[in-house]
Structure formats: structure tokens, C-alpha cells
Specification:
The longest helix has 21 residues. The chain contains 6 helices and 4 strands. The chain is α/β, with parallel strands linked by helices. It has one domain: Rossmann fold (3-Layer(aba) Sandwich). The protein has a 4-stranded parallel sheet, with helices on both faces. The chain is globular. Helix 1 packs across helix 6 and helix 2 crosses helix 6.
Length: 144
Amino acid sequence: MQRILFVCTGNTCRSPMAEAILKSKNLDGIEVRSAGVYAANGSEASAHAQRVLDEKGIEHHHHSSMLTMDEVDWADLILTMTVSHKTAILQQYPECSKKLFTLKEFSGETYNHDVVDPFGGNLAIYQETFQELEKWINKAIEKL
């Protein structure tokens, strides 16, 4: 069993969409969770994130959670949405460095390692973020 943890800021936009996308692939031997480096526990995914997932026919049931040592220990692979998320995690949990990457870094991107944050944007921005996430998650699956 490989356990993958997606991490963003508030765990209401990017990481819940990434979690839902990977779960929708129904891959054997893969467990997926998400968390946020500055998340409030218990919030639903943003309305636009939910709408985009609904439009794509992807099932989702999400309540935000703050990244904890338990989540870090649980994960075999931690994929962040930005370099700054990765840096924040390394500062708090330096022991996880060998399993910590940005999603795009892990997936082979050599230049820009950040997934754009749609927070506060319109539905079109969330749709673009979904497409970006799906592209990089598909590339990541090839490496798993």
C-alpha cells in the first residue's frame, strides 16, 4: 500500500481537488489524503472546487485538516502544491525530506514547481487549476 498526502495552504482548493482526482483513478494499492499547512479543521472544500469536481463527475467528501505529525508519519509520499509549502513542511518536519516533493517536481517539471492558487478566483480559474492538477497527477502516476 502506498500512502500519498497532498498538501496546500488551507486544504480547501488545490489539495482536496488533487486528492479527489487521484482517488477517482481507483488505483490498487494507493491511499490518498490531503491537508493544509495553515488549515482550519472541518471546513468544506471551496464552492468552486466542489463545482468543478461535480462537473467532472468526481466523487468528493472533504473536510479540511491541518497538517500534523500523524499525517506526515502516515504518508509514504508528500506532494505539495508550491515550493513554499514544501519549505514550511521541511522547517517543521525535517525528517520527512526524503518523501517530500512538490507535485510538479515529482512529476518531472524542471522549471516552475508551483500549482496556481485559485483561492478567491472565479470558476474558470478553478477549472484551469483542475486541468493543471490532473495533468501533473497523471504524470505522477507513471512514477508510482
